Amino acid sequence: MSRFVDRVTIHVTAGNGGHGCSSVHREKFKPLGGPDGGNGGRGGDVRLVVDPQVHTLLDFHFRPHASAGNGTPGMGDNRNGANGGDLELAVPDGTVILDPDGEILADLVGAGTTFVAAQGGRGGLGNAALASKARKAPGFALLGEPGQERELVLELKSVADVGLVGFPSAGKSSLVSVLSAAKPKIADYPFTTLAPNLGVVQTVPARGGERASAIDTFTIADVPGLIPGASSGRGLGLDFLRHIERCAVLAHVVDCATLEPGRDPVSDIEALEAELAAYQPALDDDHGLGDLAQRPRIIILNKVDIPEASELADIVEPDLEKFGWPIYRVSAVSHDGLRELVFALAKQVRDYREANPKQEARRAVIRPKAVDAADFSVEPDPEVPGGFIVRGERPERWIRQTQFDNDEAVGYLADRLNRLGVEEELERLGAEPGAPVTVGDVSFDWEPSTPTSDSLPVSGRGTDIRLDRPDRIGAAERKAARKLRRQHHDEWDPTLPDEDGDGSEDQS
Fold it and tell me: Highest taxon of the source (predicted)?
């Protein structure tokens, strides 16, 4: 049995960027041919795309987690890693995307409308791309950035021109079935409709034989039965009131043949209007349609094919005129009054479309940031006395890209932060030497006036003389020590006397 799901929470994860490669070109008779490490591939994005063939969020209800492909690492010989595959998720027309706090991020209306739910991480640069005049053969590469992880709430708000509202068993589904080709479930018990039903209605011009124009075509939707208290969560109304937010015209369907005591058409309409007034749409402007109280209304007195219902319609029609809305008597069984109703609905929809023409798609406007624009901020650390926190997109991204087990990579990070102006800002705020500074998830002790790598002698690959020497002896130091031992062994003469008796050559 198919289910209609119009609100889900999904967890999307974009692909991670591939790491850059640190490699040196080697060939016969040319052991050091320069850096040739390639860049890592970009991580894939997760996109939500409107698909006209999708009508529910059921797939996300059973599979709420979605992940895009990761980028592959770079390789030697200047080979870049492959980009991760993007993941496109099909959503119905009229899907609204919100964050967990309820803030609207996007409103997807129209086939092909796309929203990037999670952005893939950048690939790290290889050492070939990091080479410069001062650093001709970098011994490090940048790490790929992790993909974005987000939790999103998807709400489906049906896109229909006319919304049918009314008490349970008022005949809304029956009207949709006779006015359009839709075939909703119809039964003689309340709350038969558990999901909104959409239908397309076409009006044929009175001249006959002429094809209906696009302006004479509109969509109609019935909302599952509303009852008093629906706006506060009673019945099914709270779950489906959102489906009338986009409707240009609201039609009250009144059951004139109801046998429930204490109910009459006037009280039914007043009760539903109270619920509509109490319901606050999540969208502020709602595509220019305005508040629900300002939407055009039509009153439909249904089931007039029953004699008692027709008599009740005669009695209450003068009382309904106080609302100031057009009143139509119809019967979904005998089709009485349906033609007049369809033309009345088409006219109201036509008037709305003429008053609110569709806006043409605007060209994308790109506003690049100024070169000297501040991309970071420095503020005192509230938890660490004398400490500071550096915030900003670029500093935090550089932290994620740095290999902290590589001294040369750490020195490169220090140069980037210095060129950005972080050190000057720390001095201006009165930072003392050794003050703890936090950038992203990393904290370090600040040393002011650290010289840049351009003014320092070249050190070994993967090292930086500005940082403390590691305890582990490097390959160059081992090679130099071995050379000294060989020289010492060559200079020793076993024929010389050993005056101190230690078995070694005297140095005097």
Answer: Bacteria
